[in-house]
Amino acid sequence: MNKQALNFKDITIAFGGLKAIDSLSFDVKEGEIVGIIGPNGAGKTTLFNIISRFYKQDTGKIEVFGEDVSSLKPHDVINKGIVRTFQNVELFKHMTVLDNLLIGQHRNLNYNIFSSLIMTRRVKRIEEDAKKRAFEILNILGIGNYAYYYPINLPYGIQKKVELARALISNPKILILDEPAAGMNDTETIDLSNKLKELKDKFNLTIIVIEHHMPFVMNICDRVVVLNFGKKIAEGTPNEIKTNPQVIEAYLG
Amino acid sequence: MKKYMKQVIILAIFILLPLVFNFNRSFMTLLNMAGIYVVIAIGFNILLGYAGQISLGHAAFVGIGAYTTAILSTKCNLSFILIIPIVILISGILGFILGLPALRLQGNYLAIATLGFGVAFSHIFMEWESVTGGFSGIKGINPPNLFGYQFKTRLSMYYFILFFIVVSIIFAKNLIKTKTGRALMAIRDSEYAAMSLGIDVAKYKTIAFLISAIYAGVAGSLYAFLFRQVYPNTFDVGMSLNILAMIVIGGIASIEGSVVGALFITLIPEFLKNIKVQNASFILTGLLLILCVMYFPYGLVDIYRRFKVWLKKKAAVKDEGVKV
Question: Which residue intervals define the domain ABC transporter in the entry (chain A) (predicted)?
Answer without folding.
Answer: 6-252
